[in-house]
Design brief:
It comes from Ophiobolus disseminans. Its main location: mitochondrion. There is one protein chain. It is built from 7 helices and no strands. α4 runs antiparallel to α5. It is globular and about 55 Å long. The protein starts with a helix and ends in a 9-residue tail after the last helix.
Amino acid sequence: MAPAQVDATEKQDQEQVVPKKLPKGVVLGPDGKPCRTCTDVASWFAMTGGKPKQAATQPADITTAPRASTTTATLPADCPPDVEALGRSSWTLLHSITAAYPTRPTPQLQSETTSFLSAFGKLYPCWVCAEDFQTWMAKNTPRVSSRSEFGTWMCEAHNAVNEKLGKESFDCTRWEERWRTGWKDGRCDP
């Protein structure tokens, strides 16, 4: 990034006005400013008094009529993710890693996987979520000696977050069906 871009970004960050009373769901970062990555879009709009912009109109091609633009409660896909989009994407990645994990990983891979999880917990963009994950891992050491054990551990980690958010827990005996093999009823089969 060029120095002028850094200066403009820093100036923009410094000019961000924080309302005295924050709406529910707005999380402040360590700098005392609202954390965009830790706050869901609806809370962000409530804080700023803004409304979702209309989605861009897609250009019509020769064979279709023009598409009307619509207003949605979410930001366009090319905007930075809010805490919910980031969480969904992260869990998809983590569960997919467990699904591809070897049934009998080498000691080196086990060590690297534990290191990855530790780094993931430290680098996660939502600092509140990162701290929660680190705390959970301190009490629940990653179990990475097999695919089965790792998948169950990851499911338990996900359920701990779901519980905090007031969501339903997932039956961890079915993690492999959900993330690796597909449901037994065949709905995931090509």
